[in-house]
UniProtKB/TrEMBL annotation:
<feature type="domain" description="Nudix hydrolase">
    <location>
        <begin position="11"/>
        <end position="152"/>
    </location>
</feature>
<dbReference type="InterPro" id="IPR000086">
    <property type="entry name" value="NUDIX_hydrolase_dom"/>
</dbReference>
<dbReference type="InterPro" id="IPR020476">
    <property type="entry name" value="Nudix_hydrolase"/>
</dbReference>
<feature type="short sequence motif" description="Nudix box">
    <location>
        <begin position="44"/>
        <end position="65"/>
    </location>
</feature>
<comment type="similarity">
    <text>Belongs to the Nudix hydrolase family. RppH subfamily.</text>
</comment>
<dbReference type="Pfam" id="PF00293">
    <property type="entry name" value="NUDIX"/>
</dbReference>
<dbReference type="GO" id="GO:0034432">
    <property type="term" value="F:bis(5'-adenosyl)-pentaphosphatase activity"/>
</dbReference>
<keyword id="KW-0378">Hydrolase</keyword>
<dbReference type="GO" id="GO:0019693">
    <property type="term" value="P:ribose phosphate metabolic process"/>
</dbReference>
<dbReference type="GO" id="GO:0006753">
    <property type="term" value="P:nucleoside phosphate metabolic process"/>
</dbReference>
<dbReference type="InterPro" id="IPR015797">
    <property type="entry name" value="NUDIX_hydrolase-like_dom_sf"/>
</dbReference>
<dbReference type="InterPro" id="IPR022927">
    <property type="entry name" value="RppH"/>
</dbReference>
<protein>
    <recommendedName>
        <fullName>RNA pyrophosphohydrolase</fullName>
        <ecNumber>3.6.1.-</ecNumber>
    </recommendedName>
</protein>
<dbReference type="GO" id="GO:0008893">
    <property type="term" value="F:guanosine-3',5'-bis(diphosphate) 3'-diphosphatase activity"/>
</dbReference>
<comment type="function">
    <text>Accelerates the degradation of transcripts by removing pyrophosphate from the 5'-end of triphosphorylated RNA, leading to a more labile monophosphorylated state that can stimulate subsequent ribonuclease cleavage.</text>
</comment>
Length: 159
């Protein structure tokens, strides 16, 4: 049996999240391939030497096949979440206790047909546009507090 990992000994993984808004003020969410029923906004790690903005546009391309977006705002603070105990020591090869995220609000400048989930390393198997407030109910429970903060930060952008 492996020894439990003490989360307090692990750092947070630097990450960017993207609140992608269409012209109607709805937000892109994708259903995770590895967790049916779990819908989330695009997100991913920030590589060394990369800004949150650079990482965000790269992650859009990697996850939804397009980076046709204009950055509107970035959260001033890092938002953090901890992994549930059963994922500590497992997710991200056990290197992190959770993620610290910069969130970007972006305006989608493409057409729905530009979105292509069949990427090199597909993360989503379905997608939809939803009201910003609904994203909190769609995300896995351990990320709900982050999504509540994202909704509060960007609510003014959806009119």
């Amino acid at each position: 049996m492996t020894k439990p990992v003490d989360p307090s000994t692990l750092p947070y993984r630097p990450c960017v999240g993207i609140c992608l808004l269409n012209a109607q003020g709805l937000v892109f969410v994708g259903q995770r391939r590895d967790t049916p029923g779990a819908w989330q906004m695009p997100q991913g790690g920030i590589d060394k030497g990369e800004t949150a903005a650079e990482a965000g546009l790269r992650e859009l391309m990697e996850e939804i096949g397009t980076d046709q977006a204009t950055i509107l705002e970035e959260t001033a603070e890092w938002l953090r979440y901890d992994l549930p105990p059963d994922l500590v020591g497992v997710a991200w090869k056990g290197k992190y206790r959770g993620q610290k995220q910069k969130w970007l609000a972006c305006r989608f400048t493409g057409q729905d047909g530009d979105i292509n989930l069949d990427t090199e390393h597909p993360e989503f198997n379905a997608w939809q546009w939803v009201p910003l407030e609904r994203t909190v109910d769609l995300i896995v429970p351990f990320k709900r507090e982050i999504y509540t903060q994202v909704v509060a930060a960007f609510r003014h952008l959806v009119g």
